[in-house]
From TrEMBL:
It holds the Pfam family KYNU_C. One of its GO terms (molecular function) is pyridoxal phosphate binding. This is Kynureninase. The modification N6-(pyridoxal phosphate)lysine is found at residue 231. Pyridoxal 5'-phosphate binds at residues 99, 126-129, 205, 208, 230, 260, 286. The gene is kynU. Belongs to the kynureninase family. The lineage of its organism: Bacteria, Pseudomonadati, Verrucomicrobiota, Opitutia, Puniceicoccales. It comes from Oceanipulchritudo coccoides. Catalyzes the cleavage of L-kynurenine (L-Kyn) and L-3-hydroxykynurenine (L-3OHKyn) into anthranilic acid (AA) and 3-hydroxyanthranilic acid (3-OHAA), respectively. The keyword Hydrolase applies. Pathway: Cofactor biosynthesis; NAD(+) biosynthesis; quinolinate from L-kynurenine: step 2/3; Amino-acid degradation; L-kynurenine degradation; L-alanine and anthranilate from L-kynurenine: step 1/1.
């Protein structure tokens, strides 16, 4: 482990992204935070933004702030995010939650794809995405069916296997670009090509990929996308989600759920809905301004760093983690729950162990002389280590794996109950 620690320090010394760590609050030598794939830490600049949003915009200007930047904030923030996901202006808007945005876009897609009854996904998708589709199907009562293509290994699904399930009855293909448990990274461009050949639309969930891997929605021809901003975008707990609709498709789609901020003239207070043109039609209710104001600093940090640089370091760090796993954790009963091929892996590494939950509890519990390591747990046995290159160091990864080794060798995890916490 000594050699790996020395190597880690050398990698940190030559890391061009190392300067960004100081841009975040609450990071210290005693805390190794590996849960940025679930909730990103607080950018230091966000404090200043929120002080202005609360003290000046709300506190002093009050309702006048709607005409000083609040009203068009969802659109401006969407255009700011656009370059990170390969989207041109006027195609991204911040609104609602990921699940609500999925419902809005899926309902609009099914209406456009009238006569096609199949909605295709995989069995690796985030469960809330299933729930929204199932609720939509139950509400429409038009005979739609959700088809889940089974992963051969519980971790990944080759693009050609998913493509083979797309047929002339497929209305919509919806997948997570990066799978939440394993970190498997789809070849989204190949999925889009196969879907379009069959006349199907594609809706991608970018929650675990935006801010961690380069995305080219326009170039790949993606029809629609959704994502959250509280993971790698560091927008804060409960931060608003966003949605993307390619420009040529916007006027063909009308969501089942409509509200006044999506109307052509919201303040005409017409008793009948007339949808706005463009991406604005996918808004619904009054936007959560304070939450949206907190999102911008995290996006700006990623824009400044550049996604190619972020991706290069992410690959380096996840490769380093897997090397440590091979050398140190395999003999302790761990199995790799993420793809080895970096081209098919996002920015988190999943380690599987029968005692993963109790190991996780031991990692996050403070013990004098030991660092607190914060990963997260996903049932049934996944210990997820999230790598966020803007603030993660190689030395932290080495120390985290050493801490896992100590916990297992010394049987520290046996001090903890087996029952799950509400949030894991």
């Amino acid at each position: 482990m000594c050699k790996q620690s020395e190597r880690a320090r050398a990698l940190d010394a030559s890391d061009p992204l190392g300067v960004y760590r100081s841009s975040f609050s609450g990071l210290s030598a005693d805390l190794i935070y590996l849960d940025g794939n679930s909730l990103g830490p607080l950018p230091a600049q966000t404090k200043k933004v929120m002080e202005r949003a609360v003290g000046t915009e709300w506190g002093e200007d009050k309702i006048k702030s709607w005409n000083k930047g609040w009203f068009d904030l969802p659109l401006r923030l969407g255009d700011l995010l656009g370059p990170l996901i390969g989207a041109g202006t006027g195609q991204v808007v911040f609104a609602d939650s990921v699940t609500v945005n999925l419902f809005k876009l899926a309902s609009a897609a099914l209406a456009r794809q009238e006569g096609r009854l199949k909605i295709l996904t995989d069995d690796l998708n985030f469960p809330s995405d299933y729930y929204a589709i199932e609720g939509l199907i139950n509400g429409l009562k038009q005979g739609h069916k959700l088809v889940r293509v089974a992963s051969p290994d519980g971790m990944s699904l080759p693009s050609e296997e998913l493509a083979a399930a797309i047929d002339s009855d497929t209305a919509l293909v919806t997948i997570s670009h990066v799978v939440f448990k394993s970190g498997y990274l789809y070849d989204l461009e190949a999925i889009v090509e196969a879907a379009h050949k069959a006349g199907a639309l594609v809706l991608a969930d970018l929650s675990h990929s935006a801010g961690s891997v380069p995305i080219e929605l326009d170039r790949w021809g993606v029809d629609m996308a959704i994502g959250c901003s509280y993971k790698y975008l560091n927008g804060g707990p409960g931060a608003p989600a966003y949605l993307y609709v390619r420009e040529s498709l916007q006027e063909e789609l009308l969501p089942l759920l409509s509200g006044w901020f999506g109307a052509q003239e919201p303040f005409s207070f017409s008793p009948h809905y007339l949808a706005a043109s463009g991406i604005q039609r996918f808004l619904v209710g009054t936007p959560p301004i304070l939450s949206m104001r907190a999102v911008e600093p995290g996006i700006q940090l990623l824009l400044d760093a550049g996604m190619q640089s972020v991706r290069e370091k992410s690959i380096q760090q996840t490769e380093f983690l897997i090397e440590l796993y091979d050398q140190i954790l395999v003999p302790l009963g761990f199995a790799l729950g993420s793809p080895r091929d970096p081209a098919r892996r996002g920015s988190h590494v999943s380690l599987r162990h029968p005692e993963a939950f109790r190991i996780n509890k031991a990692m996050i519990s403070p013990i004098e002389g030991r660092p607190v390591v914060i990963p997260d747990f996903r049932t049934p046995d996944n210990l997820r280590l999230g790598v966020a290159p803007l603030y993660q160091t190689f030395e932290e990864l080495a120390r985290a794996v050493e801490r896992i080794r100590e916990i297992v060798v010394d049987q520290e995890f046996t001090r903890f109950e087996e029952g799950l916490d509400v949030v894991t």
